[in-house]
Design a protein that fits this description.
Layout (H helix, E strand, L loop, with lengths): L14 H9 L12 E3 L1 H7 L2 E6 L9 H10 L3 H6 L1 E4 L3 H13 L3 E5 L5 H9 L3 E4 L4 H15 L2 E2 L6 H28 L14 E5 L4 H13 L4 E7 L4 H8 L22 H10 L2 E5 L1 H15 L5 H17 L5 E6 L9 H11 L3 E9 L4 H10 L8 E7 L5 E9 L5 H11 L3 E4 L4 H5 L15 E9 L4 H8 L5 E8 L5 E9 L5 H11 L3 E3 L4 H6 L3
Parallel strand pairs: 2-10, 3-4, 3-6, 4-5, 7-8, 7-10, 8-9
Antiparallel strand pairs: 1-2, 11-13, 11-14, 12-13, 12-16, 15-17, 15-18, 16-17
Helix pairs in contact: 1-8, 1-9, 3-5, 3-8, 5-6, 8-9, 9-11, 12-13, 12-14
Length: 541
């Protein structure tokens, strides 16, 4: 009987194989050993020790450099002479470009035409040849394969390659060594002998997942060295290709992915990364946009550095994990995997961070369209159980003769409080809809309250600067004449010590002198905008 033909499929690498590859990985020609730092403020809040692995401190502000360089350092001299190519819109592109510069080889980086100019410039600054093609990563990837064949270049995959995985695994190698020094450092600061204070035992490491290169490398090393340490993968709830794949037992291609965390927005994970992750990772978690925004703020509070959304996924998951399992006294590490944040995104992050932490609640409140009802509602806000609250947002435009619909934001002290506040408003005669977790309201409707109203007769429009202190609005309402109806009110707290407020007031011509006296007595800086052409175009009948 003849023997079956030998298999052409290479034998999958074992954990021991990956351990050897990680221990011998070449990364430190370009990468630095990033710090493992205690997040003191967050640790106190969570009653657990939280450690930040600062991959945001790498020369390209991301861990991607490790895998790219290790892959390229293992190429033959012939391959290096011909050059390398990759498709990327972000951190991998910069890693390949810098690595190529160090190794003295050519690097062609295919990027979508939609890539922010700041990232294109960053790649070029490292010596990369940028080719802009297509509108998505998929378009860029397909084009890079054509260029690879045409020019004989070597493709450097962002995650699905054993050498790339091994390079990323050096993050875990550093962490396990560094955590051992924390006890010694603590002892030294306390004036005690080394060893007098034991190093904290690492209970879990939280790792963001895109294509899976980082978690595959981290899990391979940790499970080979200390299997007791949990490895927990984290994905966005709208980009969870790895989680869906593990549950299905095979790789799943997502139709669409959310783009807020662009560094982890992967539709199809790698074959090798999927195999390793399925075998070695202990658990998975998903987080949403608001939670990530809150985590970016948490990182800033402890480090004064701003990470990109992907870099904050692990921190958001730790907070969620502690809340779910009610843990105390444990030690968790979060890998801050990247800090290539688009500046334009910061406004959105700051706004959503408060909602993510549930320090702000949003409501749609219906109040009677009658004199004094606005003031009555503001008084009710001041009397809410749980202490004083700040109004963070108030948007209103007259639209109905009987009822007024108001968009309101309030500060809160604890999670789940918005429901109690809504019930309290309803109990006092103000029908209320809780919008705290409504994506449409948070992203769009809050910016769309307004428009032309046929009911806004004798309207005067003024921009005021209010001091951001309790009682500023009530002073305004108390000094107003009862006959002057508020027809428009727009306010949003921007974090300053003063608030900019747009107010429409229905003031009869006969009350012009009284209105001028009111403005003088009020003594708030203001600009009248009644004659502004923008007002006439968009808000006036």
């Amino acid at each position: 009987m003849s023997n079956p033909p030998a298999s052409t499929t290479p034998t999958p690498l074992s954990p021991d194989d990956y351990l050897k590859k990680i221990l011998t990985a070449r990364v430190y020609d370009v990468a630095s050993e990033s710090a493992l730092e205690p997040a003191r403020v967050l640790s106190r809040r969570l009653h657990n020790t939280v450690l930040f692995k600062r991959e945001d401190q790498q020369p390209v502000r991301s861990f991607k450099l490790r895998g790219a360089y290790n892959k390229m350092a293992h190429l033959t001299s012939e391959q290096l002479q011909k050059g390398v190519i990759c498709a990327s819109a972000g951190n991998h592109a910069q890693g390949v470009a810098l690595s190529a510069s160090k190794l003295g080889t050519r690097a062609v980086i295919v990027m979508p035409t939609t890539t922010p100019q700041v990232k294109v410039d960053a790649v070029r600054s490292f010596g990369g040849e940028v080719v802009l093609f297509g509108e998505s990563y998929s378009d860029a990837y397909a084009h890079s394969l054509l260029l690879q064949k045409k020019e004989g270049l070597t493709f450097v995959h962002p995650f699905d390659d054993p050498d790339v995985i091994a390079g990323q695994g050096t993050v875990a190698m550093e962490m396990l060594r560094q955590v051992q020094t924390l006890g010694a450092d603590k002892a030294a600061k306390a004036g005690q002998k080394a060893g007098a204070l034991a190093a904290p035992r690492l209970d879990a490491v939280f790792v963001a997942i895109g294509g899976g290169g980082l978690i595959a490398g981290v899990a391979s090393y940790i499970k080979a060295i200390d299997p007791r340490i949990k490895v927990i993968g984290v994905q966005m709830n709208d980009s969870d290709a790895m989680i869906q794949s593990v549950r299905a037992g095979e790789r799943v291609t997502l139709q669409d992915v959310g783009l807020f965390s662009d560094g982890t927005a992967v539709k199809l994970v790698g074959e090798e990364t999927f195999r390793i992750t399925r075998e070695l990772v202990d658990d998975f978690m998903t987080v949403d946009t608001d939670a990530v925004c809150a985590a970016i703020k948490d990182v800033f509070v402890d480090t004064r550095s701003i990470v990109e959304p992907a870099g904050a996924l692990a921190v958001a998951a730790i907070k969620q994990y502690v809340a779910l399992h009610k843990t105390k006294g444990e030690t968790y590490a979060a890998i801050l995997c990247g800090a290539n944040m688009n500046f334009d995104r910061l406004r959105f992050v700051a706004e959503r961070a408060e909602v993510g932490e549930e320090r702000e609640a949003l409501f749609a409140v219906t109040i009677p369209e009658e004199r004094g009802s606005f003031k009555r509602f503001c008084e009710l806000i001041g009397e809410l159980p749980g202490g004083p609250r700040n109004v963070t947002e108030f948007n209103y435009r007259i639209s109905d003769a009987a009822l007024a619909h108001v968009f309101v934001g309030l500060t809160t002290q604890a999670k789940g409080e918005s429901e109690k506040v809504a019930k309290n408003f309803t109990k006092h005669g103000f029908k209320t809809l809780d919008l705290t977790h409504d994506e449409l309201a948070k992203e769009h409707i809050r910016h769309m309250v307004g428009g032309i109203s046929t009911l806004a007769q004798n309207e005067r429009l003024l921009r005021f600067v209010f001091p951001e202190r309790p009682g500023a609005l009530m002073k305004f309402l108390s000094l107003m004449r009862p006959g002057w109806n508020i027809s428009l009110f727009h306010y949003r707290n921007q974090g300053a010590d003063y608030g900019r407020i747009l107010v429409g007031l229905q003031v009869p011509k006969a009350d012009d002198k009284a209105f001028a006296k009111f403005l003088q007595t009020l003594d708030y800086p203001y600009v009248e905008e009644t004659a502004n052409p923008v007002y006439r175009m968009f808000l006036q009948q």
